[in-house]
Amino acid sequence: MSTEIPELKNFDAAELDRVFAQLESEVAAQAAALTSDEAIEAFRLEWLGRKQGRLGQLSASWLKSAPADAKKSLGIRFNQLKAQIEAARSSTASDSGAKEISGLDVTLPGVARRVGVEHPLVQTMAEIVSVFQRMGYSVGLGPEVETDFYNFEALNFPPNHPARDTQDTLIIADQEKKPLRDRLLMRTHTSPVQIRTMLEQAPPLRIVIPGKVHRNDAADATHSPVFHQVEGLCVGEDITFSDLKGTLDYAMKAFFGSSVKTRFFPSFFPFTEPSADVQISCIFCSGKGCRKCKHSGWIELLGCGMVDPAVFEQVNQRRIELGRDPVYDTAKISGFAFGMGVDRIAMMKYGISDIGLLYSGDMRFLEQFA
C-alpha cells in the first residue's frame, strides 16, 4: 500500500485525470483482494480514516496548494473518489456476509415456532355465534362509534332515560352543537346493528351480532368500561314468545350441555315488550346450590323480549326518510331480540374470577388457554 502523496505538477484537467485515474485503479485493485471483515476494515481505515486516512491527507495537501479556480473541480473529484471507496467497501462487505450465511449448519438446534391461539374472549364469542349460525342466523357487524339515533332514539329510549346519562355513556367530545340524534358516542350495546340491518333488509331476517361495547363503568372484578356482547334479532310473520323461549333454550343447551335448564322472569327493556331475564341452572353444581350461584341453583345470564312495535315504527320512519318503503308492518310481522355478555360467560366457562385479567395482556394468564 502506497502512503506517499503524489505531487501535482499543475491543476489542469489532464493532470487531474491522470492522478485520479491512478488512485481509482488502486482502490479497485485493493477492493478486489478483500476477503475478510478484518481486511475490509483495514481498507476503510487506510482510505477514510479520520487521522491517517489517505483521502484526508490528499485533500488537505492538494486543496491547500491549488489555485482558487481549481479548487471546485478538485473537490468534485475527491467526492467521486470517496463515493467509489465507500461503494467498494459496502459491496465487498455484503458479498462477505452472503458467503458466511450461504451454508446450512445441520448440527445447530432447531428454532421452535410457538403457535398462537385465540384469546378466550374471542373463542367464547365465536362459539356462541356458531350456535346461532347453525340455526340459520347470519352475522351482523357495525361501528363502535355510533349516533344517538341508532344507539338510543331508534331503540325507544326517550331523551330523559337514565341510560342516556353521562355516568353510563361515553360521549364523543364537541358534539353539543349537533342535533341530539346526530351526536356521536361510543355504543353502549350492539343493538344499533339491529336497526342498521332492518334499514337495509326487509323481513324476514335472523341475525346474530357480536361486538365490543363501551360504558363509563368503574373497573372492578366484574365490571369493565370495555366489554363484549352477542345480541340476536329474529323478525318475520307469526314470531311468538314461544319461538324466543325455544331458541334460547336450544342455544343454552348447545353451549353449556344438554342437561342445562332455562327459566324466564319478567323484566323491562325499552326496546322489547314483553321483556324477560333468562336464568340457566347452575353449571357448577347442576342446580343443587353452591357459592357460584349463591345457593339458588340458578345463574342469570341474559335478557330478551319481543321487539316493541315502537322500534318497527322508528325503522319505518327512517326508511321513509331514506327514500325506502316502510316494510315493517306491525299488523303483519313481529320479532324477538336477545343479548348476552360474552365476558361473563367466558369467566364462567374458564373459571376466571377477575374480568381485568381478560384485558391485562399478561402472557402468564393467557398461556393457560393455549
Structural class: alpha+beta
How far apart, in Å, are the first and last alpha carbons? Answer: 63 Å
Percentage of residues in strands = 15-25%
Write down the overall geometry.
Answer: elongated
List the helices and strands and how they pair.
Elements: H1 13-32, H2 37-48, H3 54-65, H4 68-101, H5 120-133, E1 138-139, E2 145-147, H6 148-151, E3 184-186, H7 192-200, E4 205-214, E5 226-237, H8 241-256, E6 262-269, E7 272-281, E8 298-307, H9 309-321, E9 333-341, H10 342-350, H11 363-366
Parallel strand pairs: 1-4
Antiparallel strand pairs: 2-3, 4-5, 5-9, 6-7, 7-8, 8-9
Helix pairs in contact: 1-4, 2-4, 3-4, 5-10
A few lines on this structure:
With 370 residues, the protein is of the alpha+beta class. 40% of the residues lie in helices and 18% in strands.
Describe it:
- It contains eleven helices and nine strands.
- The chain is α+β, with helices and mostly antiparallel strands and 370 residues long.
- Strands 1-4-5-9-8-7-6 form a seven-stranded mixed sheet, with helices on both faces. A two-stranded antiparallel sheet has the order 2-3.
- A hairpin with a 2-residue loop joins β6 (262-269) and β7 (272-281).
- α1 (13-32) packs parallel to α4 (68-101), α2 (37-48) packs antiparallel against α4 and α5 crosses α10 (342-350).
- The longest helix is centred in the N-terminal third of the chain and has 34 residues, at 68-101.
- 26% of the residues are buried.
- The mean pLDDT is 87.
